[in-house]
Amino acid sequence: MSTNRDWIKSTIAHRPSPAVPYNFSFSPPALKALQDHYGAEDIPRTLDFPIRMKGCKSVKPLYASPERYGPTATDEFGVVWTTSDIDRGTPIGAPLTTADLSAYTFPNPRDEYRYEDLDAWCEANREHFTVIWIGDLWERATFMRGMENILIDVALDPGFVEKLLRGLADYILETMNVLFDRFDFDAVALSDDYGTQTSMIMSPDSWRSLLRPRLVEIFALAKKHGRYTFLHSCGNVEPIIGDLIDVGLDILHPIQPEAMDITRLKREFGQALTFCGGLGTQNLLPRGTPQQIRDEVRRLEDVMGAGGGYILEPGITLQADVPLANMIAMIEEARNRS
């Protein structure tokens, strides 16, 4: 394949490839350790990662430093977050204290600040597979209402949940319209956790009633404009993988091996879906040896990568608890086989 972009497209098409592609993301402490080790600021560029990801800007960035923002930061949806030097923080203030949208105004998806620097980023990465994060749907609803409250709403007031998800879906769809009109990139990504360690957060039937129709709209718009679709959902989402294929998903991330039997997922769904992830972050990466990590990278490439449709990645963004030697083992083993 002539470019990293071609490499990923070939993988999604399940065409034979001499190597399995990979994707890595790091929290600020993990990234700083790698920057110091490699003597480089831009790790994806220095190490030639084939996938490049960027999100639309937010009033509260993903990693908001307490030094700059103070102890809390409020995002454009009115959600109050703790700030942190090591992770994204925690949502501690939900703007919707009751199941009522009558006094709430959604932010403007066309606010120009959201799209700053995207032109230059797309141009700088045009030989790589470019993915733009378009937001969150169910996950955003949990931030705006609080997890306990929104789950009660699912059971007792699904009409309110439908209205909230409708407003959030409209925000995402209009974001996509701006992106497709102005920028050249390959895929849209939605962050929308549906799983716990052992099961889904809500019943599959509730998911199909509340979330599936919105995903149909979002993925259909992406397909209309010739873009691939990428969904991040932590936890066990096995009951709805068939649904995700039906509604037009191309890449499912991060297939946490602690929550699902990912080799069985490969056997059952691997011809229709590309899996991205699978490298354990709960025990293997923080507590394993570098050799154990190299061995698991090779195993995943051989088993999950057979026949294409697989991108190697850890089960979640690497945190401060992963030793530098383990991150280096993961990266070098992946790159050695590419």
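Above is the first protein from milestone M3; the second protein from the same milestone is given next.
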Amino acid sequence: MTTVIWIDWYSYHLSRFRALAEHDRLRGRVAGIELVGGCGVHSGLKFRDGDRLGLDIRSLAPMSDWSEVGQWQLARLLWRELTRLGPKTVFVPGYYTLPALAAAVWARLHGARSVLMSETTAFDSRRAGWRESLKRLLARALFDYGIVGGKPHSRYLAHLGFHKDRIARFYDVVDNAYYKRATDEARRSPAPYVHLNLPASYFLFVGRLSPEKNLTGLLREFAQYRSEGGQWSLVLVGDGPQRADLQEYAETLGVASFVRFEGLKSTQDTIPYYAFSGCFLLPSTREPWGLVVNEAMASSLPVIASTQCGCAEDLVNPGTTGFTFSPFQPGALAQRMLAMSTMPCEERLAMGRAAWEQVSAYSPQQWAEEVARIVEA
């Protein structure tokens, strides 16, 4: 038995787990544990959706938020559930929460293989020498393998002492086929989405409206883009603590009439926004990976992503699938936006096709194959 643990399961968690459940060498041998069924680490925002029918997933606190239950209680519940299941391999979501550490310790004490699922890079936060030394000791003591999103994440695990043969990839994947199929269908039959009244041409952001996403910087760069002759609008899908401030800032910059705040949407409801966009933007100053980039590329969109996004090195080939930029360089994003919006339509569509081809290798099936390889090692 193999057990996979996540805090609160989003649609992409379900896609990954379904791929495990359907893998020919894992079928009938995987169980999922969801810690909470309410809001997870993002207080006030509930992302839990998707079809769980036929999947062996048990929720430890199905009606509770992460902040309500308490990590000690969740650690105890998780320990009890692992003891009941008795897995031979445990996939652990990071090492920064008490339940995650409890799962890794349980595996050690019960002779099970522990696998760290990590999205950490060397550049996603400031690093203190003593803390890095502690992490190295922790990683060596608690984990046998690691599975990560891409190249910068692999390098960071190697820095923590993982041997390269003990590091698997393709952790950060979404259901590419779903986004491809749904957005293609929306483009062929746009009539049901007329009520959204979307701009004729627009840049799209999907995500949490919070400081690390650098949305004040995005609005500032968008205002510069418009002042330099740019004609596209900006659509932001999501919610978060900065929403009111961002709306006020758009007014201050004089671009509010070209900026749309669409609020939090379900996976299904994001489809028309991806389908009719001209380009996707992710301007974050800190982003462990950025799964919305996967979603956009699976929707055949070119992307403009910050170099601080963990996915940029693996997914964004400048000039082929989109552009990258430094979020700390004023004017860099505005320049990329102008280049994208003034590009001939056929070239931009070719970028979108290249984006789809690039992200196709980052699939739930590839993740499942990596998991199977670890389990059988």
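Note on the second protein: The radius of gyration is 21 Å.
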